């Protein structure tokens, strides 16, 4: 089974979601199914069918989370150092065309969240950045044409 890199924070979020699904969501949907059954004819019972769909989603997500957690290889960025970009690095970049600065942390695929400035290790930007150092320029394919960035800072926190 192939391990997938993940930060400790990412693993904790997955474990929290799994715990919430198992301890709160699953029992609640079981109660909803039981209540809907008590209303009689199941063939025309919309509440029953909705609860069963929700149960199916929850069970699928539980299996997915258990699989992700079992294959997680936790990498602690605070134990890493150096100027070369690798998994877990927080990278400050400047767009060479617009001079707009941005900061991203390179994380596992299942913990990426662009709103939180966390990009997946498998994203085009992260792939282009891996192995680069401060002062290097990277070209990243984008829908509107290639973008070129300069690496300003590499931090492991």
Structure notes:
The protein has 157 residues and is an alpha/beta fold. The protein folds into two domains: 71 residues, Orthogonal Bundle (Helix Hairpins); 79 residues, Chitinase A, domain 3, CATH 3.10.50. The protein contains three helices and seven strands, in the order E-H-H-E-E-E-E-H-E-E. The chain has a five-stranded mixed β-sheet with strand order 5-4-3-7-6. Strands 1-2 form a two-stranded parallel ribbon. The chain is elongated, with a radius of gyration of 22 Å. The chain starts with a strand and ends with a strand.
Order of helices and strands: EHHEEEEHEE
Low-confidence stretches: none
Strand content: 15-25%
CATH class of the largest domain: Alpha Beta
Q: Could you tell me the number of beta strands?
A: 7
Principal-axis shape equals elongated
Total number of distinct structural domains: 2
Write the CATH homologous superfamily of the largest domain.
Transcription elongation factor, GreA/GreB, C-terminal domain
**Termini separation (Å)?**
29 Å
Average pLDDT reading: 91
- From the 3D coordinates, which CATH architecture of the largest domain would you assign? Roll
Biggest sheet architecture:
5 strands, mixed
Rg over alpha carbons: 22 Å
Strand order of the largest sheet: 5-4-3-7-6
Helix content: 25-40%
Helix and strand composition category: alpha/beta
The CATH topology of the largest domain is given as Chitinase A, domain 3
What's the number of helices? 3
Domain Transcription elongation factor GreA/GreB N-terminal: 5-74
Pfam family, one: GreA_GreB
Family: Belongs to the GreA/GreB family.
Protein name: Transcription elongation factor GreA
